[in-house]
């Protein structure tokens, strides 16, 4: 199968798999135990923590979670619970992931004032409107680095500075940007990331928290992760995540050049009757979200048994509703339903991309001819 759905998940790096195997087999100890097997497991966890946190700087701590959704819940709920009583506002953006929007929506029922800012046709938030929304009542500002559906890159450093100037915390959902585009971690108070978006295993993510930021735990028990997150860690998942993070840094230039070449080749193959959703320039090049008038993306995907692609976020697939991101940039229901998202990266060959695009474009042409 030709895999073109890198925003949903990425193939596990062989090196990450190898790093995991000892902690599935002979080194199976509980990392919170004090005997030799436990200490070996803990050493693997701490090495992974160091590797993952390296791009985020030394002024914080990395808390392992089950994934980015848990990390974002901990950040939003945990910081709001510790916010001063005169700070009840949370400011975010209409194109954020459901893990942010739905968590903020839940807090609205707990007394939070939620401000969701619109974006323009290119998927970019207006910074003047952002500055107006962040005031002395604001507890938290949340904005993603790279949009998971249309790939646009938000100016998170500028947004974070606005939050800081008003005494508010800034949370960055860096799931799609970590290891792919520059991450201004020095401006952030919290950063959420996920292993399986960077060729690591599923089932593990992390929240980086700047020192001095107070959070209320959302899971209670043994308090294994700095008192903020309870539960026995999986050393194998941590080791896989850590190796994936190391590879991400070691291969940064090589991966970037490869993805840029794939992006340019894809644009050369796509005809003019396809339109790209989101800003064409200020975006991560491994994301190609595009539409063609009159096309039925659900039917197109169903017809492609040998190609893995999507119409948007994997978390919302099957809902039957148009993508909230595509609606937020002003697309009609029909335009949203005529959009597909292609994701490619480290293990995508140029030949695979060309073959996959050729099949997709031919199928779209046939669909149009049948409709005529």
Would you spell out the secondary-structure blueprint of this structure?
Layout (H helix, E strand, L loop, with lengths): L1 E2 L10 H11 L11 H18 L6 E6 L2 H15 L6 E5 L4 H11 L4 E5 L9 H7 L4 E7 L11 H10 L3 E5 L16 E5 L10 E6 L24 H16 L1 H18 L5 E2 L10 E5 L5 H7 L3 E2 L15 H5 L4 H4 L2 E5 L6 H22 L1
Parallel strand pairs: 1-11, 3-4, 3-5, 5-6, 6-7
Antiparallel strand pairs: 2-8, 7-8, 9-10, 10-12
Helix pairs in contact: 1-7, 2-7, 3-4, 8-12
Structural write-up:
With 372 residues, this protein is an alpha/beta fold. The protein has two domains: 2-9 and 252-362, Aspartate Aminotransferase, domain 1 (Alpha-Beta Complex), CATH 3.90.1150; 14-249, Type I PLP-dependent aspartate aminotransferase-like (Major domain) (Aspartate Aminotransferase, domain 2, 3-Layer(aba) Sandwich). The protein is built from twelve helices and twelve strands. It has helices at 14-24, 36-53, 68-82, 98-108, 127-133, 156-165, 235-250, 252-269, 297-303, 324-328, 333-336, 350-371; strands spanning 2-3, 60-65, 89-93, 113-117, 138-144, 169-173, 190-194, 205-210, 275-276, 287-291, 307-308, 339-343. The strands form three sheets. A seven-stranded mixed β-sheet has the order 2-8-7-6-5-3-4, sandwiched between helices. Strands 9-10-12 form a three-stranded antiparallel β-sheet, with no helix packed on it. A two-stranded parallel sheet has the order 1-11. The two termini are 31 Å apart. 49% of the residues are buried. The mean pLDDT is 95.
């Amino acid at each position: 199968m030709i895999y073109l759905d890198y925003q949903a998940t990425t193939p596990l790096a062989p090196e990450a798999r190898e790093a995991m195997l000892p902690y599935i087999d002979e080194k199976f100890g509980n990392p919170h135990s004090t005997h030799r097997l436990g200490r070996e497991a803990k050493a693997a966890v701490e090495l992974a923590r160091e590797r993952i946190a390296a791009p985020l700087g030394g002024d914080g701590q990395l808390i392992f979670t089950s994934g980015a959704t848990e990390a974002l819940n901990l950040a939003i709920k945990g910081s709001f619970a510790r916010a001063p009583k005169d700070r009840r506002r949370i400011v975010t953006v209409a194109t954020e992931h459901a893990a942010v929007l739905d968590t903020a929506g839940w807090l609205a029922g707990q007394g939070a004032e939620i401000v969701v800012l619109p974006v323009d046709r290119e998927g970019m938030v207006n910074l003047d409107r952002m500055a107006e929304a962040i005031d002395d009542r604001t507890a938290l500002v949340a904005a993603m680095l790279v949009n998971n559906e249309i790939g646009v890159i938000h100016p998170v450093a500028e947004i974070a500075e606005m939050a800081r100037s008003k005494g508010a915390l800034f949370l960055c959902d860096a799931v799609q940007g970590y290891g792919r585009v520059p991450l201004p971690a020095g401006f952030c108070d919290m950063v959420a990331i996920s292993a399986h978006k960077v060729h690591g295993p599923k089932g593990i993510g992390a929240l980086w928290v700047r020192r001095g930021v107070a959070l209320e735990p959302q899971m209670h028990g043994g308090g294994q992760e700095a008192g903020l997150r309870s539960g026995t860690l999986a050393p194998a998942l941590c080791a896989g995540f850590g190796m994936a993070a190391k590879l991400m840094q070691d291969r940064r230039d090589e991966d970037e050049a490869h993805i840029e070449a794939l992006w340019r080749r894809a644009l050369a193959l796509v005809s003019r009757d396809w339109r790209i959703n989101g800003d064409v320039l200020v975006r991560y090049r491994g994301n190609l979200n595009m539409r063609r008038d009159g096309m039925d993306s659900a039917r197109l995907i169903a017809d492609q048994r040998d190609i893995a692609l999507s119409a948007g976020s994997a978390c919302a697939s099957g809902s039957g509703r148009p993508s909230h991101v595509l609606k937020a940039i002003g697309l009609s229901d029909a335009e949203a339903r005529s959009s597909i998202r292609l994701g490619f990266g480290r293990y995508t060959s140029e030949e695979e991309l060309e073959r996959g695009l050729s099949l997709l474009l031919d199928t779209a042409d046939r669909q149009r001819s049948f409709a005529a």
